[in-house]
Amino acid sequence: MRRALSLALACAAALTACATGGRDDAMRIKSLPRAEVDIDPDARIEGGREKAMAGYRDFLQSAPDDPLRVEALRRLGDMEIESNEEREQRRAETGARAAGSADYRHAIKLYEDLLKAYPRYRGNDRVLYQLARAYEGAGDYERALRALARLTTEYRATPHFDEAHFRRGEILFVTQDYGKAESAYAEVLRQGEGSAFFEKAQYKHGWARFKQGRYEAGLDSFFGVLDRHLRNRDPGTLTGDIPDMSRGEQELLDDTFRVVSLSLSYLHGPETIVALFERHGARRYEFRVYQRLGDLYLKQERIQDAAGSYNAFVRRYPNHPQAPFFQLKVVDAYKQGGFAAQSLEAKKEFVTRYGVKSEFRRVNTEAAYAQILPDLKAQLEELARHYHGSAQKSKQPADYQEAAVWYRTWLESFPRDPQAAQLNFLLAEMLFESRQFFEAAQEYEKTAYHYPAHAKSADAGYAALLAYDEQEKRLASEAQRAWRLAGLTSAVRFVDRFGADPRTPAVLTRSAERYYALGAPEQAGELAQRVLARQPEAEAGLRRTAWTVVAHTQFERGAFDRAEAAYQQALALMPAGDPARAAMTERLAASVYKQGEQSRATGDTRAAVAHFLRVGRVAPGSPVRATAEYDAAAGLIALKDWGAAVTVLEGFRKAYPNHALRSEVSGKLAVAYLESGQLPRAAAEFEAMAAGQTDPNLRREALWQAAELYDKAGSHGSAIAAYQRYAREFPRPLEPALEARSRVAESYKKNGQWRDYQQALTEIVRADQGAGGERTDRTRYLGATAALTLAEPAYDEYRKVKLVEPLKKSLAVKKDKMQAALKAYGSVAEYGVAEVATASTFRIAEIYRDFSRELLASQRPKGLSPEELEQYDVLLEEQAFPFEEKSIEIHEVNAARVTQGIYDRWVKDSFAALGKLKPVRYAKPERGPEVIDAIR
């Protein structure tokens, strides 16, 4: 367990160091490891330390003369210290004052009693050690010092000897008795490096001297600490940490370097460093001493002193691997302090002393030199940019010349560097600014074409052309032609290399014009084509002229596709109000239509259609469009591409409502709708055709077709309207008109429109019955089925009436309903339509049968005696029997139709009824054809 005294003394030492001069330079003692108290473990006692302590106290009270008393006193004292230190530990961890705070008085009393009672006890050195800990914990540093002094005086062979002196030094340091503290630390140092406290003592020994103002003497101690850690170790680089070092070790060295720097700053700075290393001998880490001193000066804003410290190392060791970085620190120091002129001169010194041809490079390894190359590049660039900026402000040739020197030095030093192109570009810019156009053109071309592609490649290539232009203005006419040709060569080189650059079209167009002016039409034409092929496109004014020329040429050659593309481009570039726009549009439409004709002539109908349709897209206002779209629709119909044909024809009719071909379009569109499965649209088209036809037969056929298509498509409302219109407008011939009415009725039935359904059926019956000689089998059938359906409500009404008391009244009602139903079914039977006659015959027979059953099941009068009830039943049977006989007779009529080859549902139902009415004869298994014999 770490001692509380060490913790307290360490904190006090740190505070004292901070108070001196206001600097955080003292080593943080509390971060150092402490020695552990070696207490022999006792046998385990059930219940823990408190129970053990209670046991020792009981023992001490009960056995005052026992030989083990001395051990009990020692052990109890040790446990008291452990208990108190644990309390302090908990307080430290929780950050609050814990219950039962540390109280070392009991431990102190126990140890003092032991020393007094047992002066010859063999473990008194340990007791004194523990007593010092207890005094320390209680904050009694004076008595702790006395205990430690007694321990080191009386027990020089104790294993705690060096630690005791170190702790003496710590207490004396905290109490600011630095001279005695130095002596105490020196005692530890005399024990040699084998002591666990040697390094801590050496470090604090230096601090004790520092606190006394003996800075140079303190440096000897501090350098001892540095030597222990760095003498045989790679010190790293100026820009990096010392490698392979733990965090604790790094912190110790940081603190040591800090106090060393403070000491040097109080002495003679770099001069003291020189004397120090001459006295101690060279060290690999010497550069770090210069570095730390310079950094301290910089932190104190002593800029000149900082730069002087860094420069001192450079002057003393100009070819040391870290020397360039010290020179850079000089640059940064002056820059940080605002000394621009000195910083600039330091940069020049750096690039001169450590350039690629320097002595430094010759004597150092390539790996070492490679470390400064990034800074060398940066400083050269900064010098070049600085003088370039100055020249831009001053316009003085000397400044331009200075900038050129540094740009060229950079380029000569790093010709293959990725940044070389950028710097070469800046050199060319500077030459252009200083009106050295000939040299600028050369450097621009070098920037553009002698390096791998970079961000300024295209800009440099274009700037070279500007330099050529400027230089051309200075030349006489004879020299101008040669220079212009050189410039054109550079221009072609530009467009070949930088085809994607947005300035390329302008360069091409201007070059084409210049070649033309120089009498080179082939080159001019080739460049014009390149203008047109340029992507992204050139500026509108440049492209319009070129496209128009190309378009006319291609049209005359019969290359209508190329002509079309050219006309489109030219039109797109024409202002909306340009007078030539209309003629250009017609040429465009003609070029597209001609492509359609070419495809049609070769039998490629699909391609022809595509071209015809494109006329409307590329020239929507052209008169050619209507003809082209009609031709396209004809082609699509020929290809049976009904969907596409529909689209085209609909568009045609909408776009050209008064066109002479409109009537033909309707017929084609109706067929296309029908073939493409668009039945409602086809129906509507046929309906529209009917409305527009003057020929009644064509109108009738178109209207019927419309109605059927509506019906087939499930458009019942439209179908009903069409059929009604047909029946209304074309009542003759009768059969299709009646068929139309029948379909109207069926639609009403499907839609649940029962009233309309009944009305439609009535109209069918009326129309058929009044047709006279126009009646046909189909009209009779339609009339009969309608009449049969109309009879059903009368049958339903009859079935609803029940014979109840008063029987006379209900019987009269049922008879009336019976007569109405018989009349209705009788009318149906008169049609002579077999499948309707069987149904009406079955219903009539069932009406009689039902009446017979209803009589027998009717409600009996109340108050009849048994004899009267029996007589009443006999009378009812007599009344009901004729109706049952009538039912049998009529069912037999229906059954007899089998001999006529009629055996439908109603005939079957009549056989079933006869099986119940006359079971002996009719209740036999059905045997197919033999049923006829059974009936006979």
Query: Residue-averaged pLDDT, rounded?
Result: 82
Dominant shape: flat
Backbone structural class: mainly alpha
What portion of the residues fall into strands of 2 or more residues? under 5%
Number of separate helices: 45
Q: Mind describing the biggest β-sheet?
A: none
What is the alpha-carbon Rg in Å?
62 Å
Helix content: over 70%
Say how many strands there are: 0
Uncertain runs: 1-46, 927-936
Distance between the amino and carboxyl termini: 131 Å
Explain what this protein looks like in three dimensions.
- Helices cover 74% and strands 0% of the residues.
- Helix 36 runs antiparallel to helix 37.
In short:
Helices cover 74% and strands 0% of the residues. It has 936 residues and is mainly α. The N and C termini lie far apart (131 Å).
Fill in the keyword field for this structure.
936 residues, 45 helices, disordered C terminus, mainly alpha
Strands, helices and their partners?
Elements: H1 4-19, H2 49-62, H3 69-94, H4 105-117, H5 124-138, H6 141-154, H7 161-174, H8 178-190, H9 198-211, H10 215-230, H11 247-266, H12 270-280, H13 286-299, H14 303-316, H15 323-337, H16 340-353, H17 359-363, H18 366-370, H19 373-394, H20 397-413, H21 420-433, H22 437-449, H23 457-473, H24 477-497, H25 504-517, H26 521-533, H27 540-556, H28 560-572, H29 581-601, H30 605-618, H31 624-638, H32 642-655, H33 662-675, H34 679-692, H35 696-713, H36 716-729, H37 734-750, H38 754-769, H39 777-800, H40 807-829, H41 834-856, H42 866-895, H43 905-917, H44 919-922, H45 931-935
